[in-house]
Amino acid sequence: xxxxxxxxxxxxxxxxxxxxxxxxxxxxxxxxxxxxxxxxxxxxxxxxxxxxxxxxxxxxxxxxxxxxxxxxxxxxxxxxxxxxxxxxxxxxxxxxxxxxxxxxxxxxxxxxxxxxxxxxxxxxxxxxxxxxxxxxxxxxxxxxxxxxxxxxxxxxxxxxxxxxxxxxxxxxxxxxxxxxxxxxxxxxxxxxxxxxxxxxxxxxxxxxxxxxxxxxxxxxxxxxxxxxxxxxxxxxxxxxxxxxxxxxxxxxxxxxxxxxxxxxxxxxxxxxxxxxxxxxxxxxxxxxxxxxxxxxxxxxxxxxxxxxxxxxxxxxxxxxxxxxxxxxxxxxxxxxxxxxxxxxxxxxxxxxxxxxxxxxxxxxxxxxxxxxxxxxxxxxxxxxxxxxxxxxxxxxxxxxxxxxxxxxxxxxxxxxxxxxxxxxxxxxxxxxxxxx
Amino acid sequence: xxxxxxxxxxxxxxxxxxxxxxxxxxxxxxxxxxxxxxxxxxxxxxxxxxxxxxxxxxxxxxxxxxxxxxxxxxxxxxxxxxxxxxxxxxxxxxxxxxxxxxxxxxxxxxxxxxxxxxxxxxxxxxxxxxxxxxxxxxxxxxxxxxxxxxxxxxxxxxxxxxxxxxxxxxxxxxxxxxxxxxxxxxxxxxxxxxxxxxxxxxxxxxxxxxxxxxxxxxxxxxxxxxxxxxxxxxxxxxxxxxxxxxxxxxxxxxxxxxxxxxxxxxxxxxxxxx
Lengths: 436, 274
Prior knowledge:
The structure holds two protein chains of two kinds.
Chain A: H1 5-23, H2 43-49, H3 58-68, H4 81-84, H5 131-140, H6 150-158, H7 161-171, H8 177-188, H9 197-202, H10 211-221, E1 244-245, H11 256-269, H12 272-281, H13 290-293, E2 302-303, H14 325-333, H15 353-364, H16 372-384, H17 394-397
Antiparallel strand pairs in A: 1-2
Helix pairs in contact in A: 3-8, 5-8, 10-15, 14-15
Chain B: H1 3-17, H2 21-25, E1 50-54, E2 61-68, H3 75-92, H4 103-108, H5 110-114, H6 150-153, H7 166-187, E3 218-220, E4 225-227, H8 229-238, H9 251-262
Helix pairs in contact in B: 7-9
């Protein structure tokens, strides 16, 4: 029997391309081989996010974890990285604003370390590109760990015999600030987190989510428009676009226009050092990304955080000003807080109370199952506050007041579920691409 | 509900709500248009009750000796049977324009194309081998720009929208590839297609050969109407594959479309071409 010649050609091509793939790695950069990753963590993203040469090794990770928990890295031996990124609390501190040495409040909410290795930039304003650079700054921040400079840190660590030995074993040289940061970063690169009920659902277990959570997932992709910034897919399952948006959080507690005007003036005339101080220590911290890029359209914008483990990493927003996810929904439902720099994508959403409940239910299904107990506890706590809703403005959300435009048509979920559109639909199981 | 039905039903409902009940129920009001049933490929019955397979041309069919109607072929049996069917079709249509394999794939693999000896028979019992993205297609490793060092991703010059880094583009290319890969899986899997006889798309269209997605929409003789690629995919699912047609928005349908288009990258768009 003769095979259709198509089969012959195609087989040959397949063989050919297989050989080609095996022989030549992707042009340019060679990607590291990821460790065994749980569902919901993308091997592709791991390859993209871990710079070659910075792959965590067990020795570096062990030293990094020890340093992460080391209070002696702070000026008065009271604060460690862990103080604000408590592993048991999903690597946050549960406080609106974090506290550094001598009970000083910093200006921002501590973001989780979970999946931080996948961030395109670090900090709420993205002022560093790598975990190494990130790790160095809080140690020297006067309000955080308060060490005067890198040399002082190195001198102090060199005075602790166990570290002298360990650094020698791991890096083969004297303690230095770069190696210290590299070890902490290596530890952080092992703190990926997937395996939420959502992942079980996406990989084929349709019963892993409740009806309410499924509806929340549809709203997330549809009427509630969450996915326009909190984009998630099988390759980048973080639910963050890694961009910076002004959603008006800073504008709800002060005269933001005046603040912005002053800030722009200072930046136009000021020197770099002064600007850094503005970012860290003053009310101008609220100008967010602007202080990094000096571009006016970045005024008041902050990075879209990942929604992975969002249920256990509250309170929310860069300033921790929203205690519950219900408050977050209220904030977005009315189209954020108006200010001249508001992101153009913000609009009222017209979500009803049951829809908000469904969305919050869905968000709690994004928590890694290893935090199940904490997740339940947090959900109960937040639900108990459901009737205290300072951000709620139903009249604006529903278009009875204000001028935030008409809504997009509300999709009939029985006919077409917007969550089914991408490869993160609920029917087709998607397995993350494994790099060879 | 189709758009046309909505266009008819919605004004009717509005009228009746306004009190014009008589209008809405009067003989003049048009009944909602019904979707015209597609012609079916009626297969000749077998005297011995053997399984009869149909080809997607809507005409060619063959009995599979030794396999009864209602039984499911193994992948090996299905491969053999569909190859025979294709051979019959080619004998009937010696001048037919059959695209053997994606154009660019041939261009990038000249040795493979001119190979004088037939390539080894596939091991039909095994899972399909082969790339989900053909040589020259868009894949994470082919067309995406390389990921920058981290500081490049760190640059956002003041515009939230349009401020896309090479890292973003890499993620997008990988996402597209994942979608295409899923299409590749469905295309090669009779069960995923919902087939009842063990036939999958790749058996007649190895590596999506001769699917010519670039020629749709066009008049399809089997369907007796102008069809989109997805209509033709559904025809094949209903007839040779013997499954149930997929909804337009079914992720499997969407993934297969992605795969079929990906296999024809670089081919000129020529809708309506035969």
